[in-house]
Amino acid sequence: MNLLINSRSLVVLDPLAFFFLVVILLVGFPALIYSLGYFKGKFTRTKLLTTQLITFAFIASMLLLVVAGNALFFLIVWELMTLLSYLLVLTDSENEAAVRAASTYIIMTHCGTAFLTAALFLIYRHAGSFDLPAMAAACQTMSPLLRNWLFVLFLLGFGTKAGIVPLHIWLPLAHPQAPSHISSLMSGVMIKVALYGLIRFVFLVLGISSIWWGIAVLALAIVSCLVGVVYALMENDLKKLLAYCSVENIGIILMGVGLAMVYLRLNLNGLAALAMVAGLYHLINHAAFKGLLFLCAGSVQKGTGTLDMEKLGGLIKKMPWTAAFFLVGAMGISALPPLNGFVSEWLTLQAFLSGAFNVPGVLALVFALGAAALALTSGLAAACFVKAFGITFLALPRGREAEQAKEAPASMLLAMSLLAAAVVGLGLLAMPIFNLLGRVAQPICGASLQTTDLFSLNLQPNSCFAISPLFMALILGGALLVGMTAYYIFGARKSRLGRTWDCGYYQTDSRNEYTATAFSKPFRISFSFFLLPFRKTERHKESFYHVSSFVHETHTTKIFKKYLYDTTLASLYRGTKIFKRIQAGSIHLYIAYILATLVLLVLLVRMF
Amino acid sequence: MALTDILMRLLFVVVLAPLASGIIAKVKNNLRLRQGQGILQPYRNLIKLFGKEEIVPENSSWIFRVAPFIVFATSVTAVLFLGTGFGRVGDLLAIIFVLALGRFFLALAALDAGSSFGGMGSSREMFISSFVEPAACLVIFALYLSPGANWSVAHILAGLALLIVILAETGRLPVDNQETHLELTMVHEAMLLDYSGPSLALLEIAAQVKQFFWLCLLASVICPLAVWLFIACLLALFFVVAFIEVGIAKYRLFKAPDLIIFGVILALLAVVSALLGV
Question: Rounded to the nearest 5 degrees, what angle is found at the Cα of A546, between the Cα atoms of A540 and A548?
């Protein structure tokens, strides 16, 4: 089998691949700058050097992956990327949690890779080549049933890596365990590379052959959004919160992708292009602000030694720059205008809305529900980041760690400022970026999408959208000036520092502050059907009247882990007991087994 | 749109918005068989607040100081996007995001002072608003699907859903109580607890402008025909809001989502009826 020599081109450099190269470098470059300061005084010289080399190789593997023009090459690089990121999660290998997280990660992604391998080899059997154009041509002649199966395999394979619900459980374990710039690479870029695979193989190789594909992706997207953001709201660990938020944002990106699939199948190419642009726009936006937020979280961890929000607080005075950058990222991810998250979520809503006239009524209702789910998600995400920023950075420090916080070194601040500039720039320069993304979406969706007016994203002649983020920023700035003028001209201009209102009792201190757990309590109660909160209070009494201490325990139940994974694993373990009988411990016997399996496989292959 | 037009509208709204609050308060008081304050009382309050010294909590940061300006700016921006000129219905989606910007900063400022009342208000505000956003989004969806069809079923249902959105967004009963003096029951007021002087005045104006924006939006959904009809509609809405507030008790916090989800369902029905063309 001449697998590789057959291929005319190992490398494909179309607009889609180019776009992903930009996304990878957008986060990769600041992450490398950041690592200079972040690793200082942390590890021995050798370990430092190895980690940096692996990081380089990791970024290089992602770059190679998106330009791979050959499916076998793609698979090899894919595996390389998985293994390198596994090693990076294991950087802190003395930590037991890191080892467990890394194991979960490697097992789950390998299951995903198995699905991918199956899909790609199935196509190879029809095409006789691993070249992407040849594979695409072969896919056109396949039976619809086979194509449906291939789609499911691709969705499972890439979905595992992208962390869509319910395949997400490795993500909030593995991402927070890595060093912060690696987290930012994994959350900001690596899960996007999985979406690259999905777009490349489902849109361009397989071709959308059935409308339920799009609807399935849309449904998974809605579930991912809501589940991700609700879990994020419950987290009190800054990096875990960000990791769950990645699940949510993958959902938002997939909304655009799923919509594009539906529209393409209905031959609404212009709308498909709009939906695809919305998805891709959110993809690059998420890379920018999630990358930034993970870097900020790392600087909090370096400055204070903890990521537990209940011990933090008041960092805005000790770490003013980190706080400012975190605020920019939080505003971006909460979809607040005029920053970038707003643009892409707004475009996604437009993609939902614009097609409502052109699709069958039931589908329009699904779109309405999708739009409502997106609105709910963005509301919950805003609450989540009010909590993340407010509890971590505002008011008084809640513990000694936060009191002795130190600002991050210049190299880390430089890296964060680059990404913060990207967050602002991607928001204000929406029009040129929209046009560039239109060019990326054109070969995928077969329609071009251009807007010429700097002050509007006016899509169709009769469209109902005219405001541009830049225009909105100008109006907001003008209104801000009006407010400040009123304040400084008419206001008394007398002010003094005073105590916070404490209801007339005594001096308040940090123990009176609202906590992260308290902040999320209304959500915990309201979503209790899903979160299944558990609470236990024990009183240790000295006498009948005097309670000397309390033990209070509260947590939520991760239902996917408990009811899906734990039960599956338990039955798997039960099943493996049967095989104990043929495991006698003799090496000869094992070699015989291997031989028998090989013979069976050869026979199987011959038969087909 | 010309700059003068923008300024005129700005002046018009900022000047009229406190009057709406005054009228609603007056109607409420009269319904309770009280004399009540005059309808110009909100103006007197604002003038007084502007002249007062400001006390800034010592634990707070620059977030606390800039929040009033941002909240004010977002309310004013929301109004500018309403009506003629930019007022295409899909752009209302953008306004939801603009208002979210103001809410975000107000919630942060409430946490900044370090009191538990502020935190409570901040948490509750974000809790309620996260349910309001899908309702508002669906209302806009329904309005987009049935343009111009006045007094259709879709419009009426969307209007009712919008009314619920307004009650929740403007801190009115049964979701929140603007008149309460008990910190533990406050939502919006709890966030303003540590503000004083001109900053408080800006936040009050912002809240009044936001209320005016929502009521204008509802009035334009019900009767977008003529100016005098619009104004009559607006006045009628003041009475409706006052009647609702007098006739209903505050819900427990965890019952508030039930009401808003009722609004979501109404809006969904509006979408369905718009799709059916009724």
Answer: 40
